[in-house]
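Subject: sequence -> structure tokens, single chain

Hey, anyone have a minute? Need the predicted structure for the following. Not urgent.
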Amino acid sequence: MNRPAWRDPLTWVVVVLVTLPVVVAAIAALGRNGALASDMALINLRLRDTGTVDTPLLGPFSRYGWNHPGPLMFWLLAPIYRVLGTDPQAMYAAGAVANAIGLGALVVLARRFGGRRLLAATAVGATLLVAGTGTVMADPWNPYLAMVPFAVFLMAAAATADGDVVMVPVVLGLGSLLVQTHVGYAVLVAAIGIWTLGWLVRRFVHPPADRRRPSRRTAVLVGVISVIVVGAAWVGPVIEQVSNEPGNLTKVVEYFTGNDSEVTGGSVGFGALARQLHPLGPWLGGPERTGTNTILNEASLWWALPAIVGLGVAMGWSWRRRDRRPLMLGGTVAVGIVAATFASTRVTGSAYFYLFRFWWPLAMLLWVTIGWVVLRAVAAVEPTRRLALATAALVVVVGAGTVANSIELSGDLAPLPGAPAVTAVTDTALDRLKPGGTYLVEASGWSFFGELFGVMDRLDAEGFTVVTDPRFVTQFGERRVLGGEDAPSNIDGRLVVATNGSVDYLARQPGYVALASWDPLDASERAETRVLWADIRRRLEGAGYRDLAAEVGNIPLDVLLANTGTLADDVGIPAATRTRLADLEPRGVRVTLFLAPPEDARS
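Reply:
Had a minute. Here:
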């Protein structure tokens, strides 16, 4: 059918079917309760800042000491967040709404670019992606939030490469969003951008018979809109860059050009390619990491062959038939795969699985391209008079997926580590603090500081002014670290978020008042844990490892041994003990919120 995408009823039927499960996820998110911890607490804090004098000019923090380049994810989510309630539940719901909008845009662009056959292939691909990702669709964490926009970016880039100049501002806007949200997309956006620009110039010089060269008026209008989009997208990072020495963009560039840290290399890069393009890859819900580990689980390169060969055959078929548009989509995906493989080889530090999420949209659209070519090949043999039957079959298949996905996404999210502790201690402690007071909040004891971030977010939301240690300036900005620019200088008191062994230590110190405590283990489990710890301490001390023995009960045993290169068998720690603590310790992080004595408050 030649009618425009927006006038085709099937377009909107598919939009509803694909996005409905994610809308269900948004509604389910609004019904949850509790505080946040870790990165999610920081995102909630930044969303609450957006639209105020503290509107963020930078993106989420990076573990490398700088921020991702820009705040577009905060700026775009904030209006939805405020409409839905300005609380942790609204944050998750806003992430789901954003993904629903992105999936709807993907469907509309597919119909605009490739007609009903590409619409059909995209509908199936998007439904499978939602099924494979599950509740990630309601998670606004930046590595996850960038996935759906990247799929839309790929589709828009393919349309632009085919000569659809209206898509130029869309590509520029989405490219800006991706790079600002997670800098790992920079290589992919740059490579695909160069590919797209090259083909767009060719379309201007030698327009195909079915696409007229755009008028001067259209070209000028698209150019003006593009400049406005890019200017609006990058105004925040530019202001931050010229206002600070060094600016964040300088830090990012210097890190990637001057950093001598070891990178993951070809084994991880090609292992990621094989794992992600596996016939039952992670985007379909296949395994991505080893057990509960956060490290990417690689695979033999042979597992990528079905996908790569399938794409090659589809491209060959399209080339022989001079079928231009599938070549543009397939070529865009192929360029993305090459760039993604390169990017996967350049990760510094541990190869955490969430750093490779750009593979999911690529894998999905690779199979969408193959499916589209198959549908076009069938249509070349079989007249389209059976289109009505095929349309009905599409609605039934995608509809079944919609029902299944809606049921899945109506459930609860996986527990966020540290969040129950933050909820418990802040619920109890709020009434014991000076209303609207200014507090220095610090962490003590081994943790990844997730509880500290959660307490900071909760107190800020309740009207307290909070600052923390300057080492967290990347996470909180200058205004919320002690001694930072515009940070408060008069402190009413110091709060200490104590975890694990630090709980017992601070409880013995004079003047420390426990405002609230949380222990996820029951009395018998806690007693069993203490017995196991005591036995391990005796064994470590007997083997001459007194320093390690002192850390037992503070740092999880597996982390303690791994960080020091100590083998459990060498010090006689039984396998049964390690297995039992591997169950108890991850869910047994105790948290106590202490009010430090007045003389320890800093001012």
